[in-house]
Amino acid sequence: MFIFKIITQQHVIRSIVSGLFVAFCLVRVTVGQETEKVTTIHIVTPEWEEYTQKDGAGVYFDLLRAVYEPVGVTMTFELVPWKRALEMLDRKSADAVPGEYYKEEFRMPRYPIDFDETSVVFKKANIAEWQGIQTLAGKTLAWLRGYDFHVEPEMAGIQYKWLEVDAVEQALKMLEKDRIDGYLDTTDEIETYLEELQFDPTFYHIEPLWTRDLYLLFADTPKSKVLIEIYDQRIPELLASGELQKIFEKWKISFPAFTPREK
């Protein structure tokens, strides 16, 4: 009887140890498999000159390569309109979109990728004196489809008409023909297109409205969790090495603070 008890106890101990070992191996395999699968990050974005160019150059693309390629993650990209990019993210057919304001309902890293200043451009003849954002009351405004400036807190309480357009050129032509009173976009985009379309700057005025940090918006997938962890680990490393600042200096773009948001 005594010998039987010893044998039984030894059998139980061996079973427990074997079970723990198998569980440990399964955990390692699961984590390993998850990590092994993350070898690419697929970015969808509009084409923005100096940021996300069709030739694969630009400050955002350079930054993302610097973040991910040293750890074995290759960046691929697809240039699509903003609204379609968000739809692709919602369908989980892409991994991330750069240049979105922070929103609690989305997966985003703690560190931003950039900041932007949103402005409105209008004809001086139509708005002779700017008296703050309330000056937009009663006006007809336009912005790119999917930008949704009407939900920004600064626009709350202002009564105005708004419409969406598919291209900056379309909006500025409407502004030129007095079909709208103002066009909202980033200051850089407005200045770039006014110059490219050869608008006479003496007839137009650009007024800043607000400044925001911009983030990478990720799809709601297990893969995104790994990609976000890599991003939040690599950005401080690139800041410390000075590589991040060199990327922005190369493109002559203002260097963001890269202040992490609170968890």
Structure, described:
- Keywords: Signal.
- This is Solute-binding protein family 3/N-terminal domain-containing protein.
- Residues 54-251 form the Solute-binding protein family 3/N-terminal domain.
- The chain is built from seven helices and eight strands, in the order αβαβαββββαβαβαα.
- It has 263 residues and is an alpha/beta fold.
- It has two domains: 37-115 and 213-250, 3-Layer(aba) Sandwich (D-Maltodextrin-Binding Protein, domain 2), CATH 3.40.190.10; 116-212, D-Maltodextrin-Binding Protein, domain 2, CATH 3.40.190.
- The strands form two sheets. The chain has a six-stranded mixed beta sheet, sandwiched between helices.
- The longest helix is centred in the first third of the chain and has 36 residues, at 2-37.
- The N and C termini lie far apart (60 Å).
Observed structural traits:
D-Maltodextrin-Binding Protein, domain 2, 7 helices, disordered N terminus, alpha/beta, elongated, signal, Solute-binding_3/MltF_N, Solute-binding protein family 3/N-terminal domain-containing protein, six-stranded mixed sheet
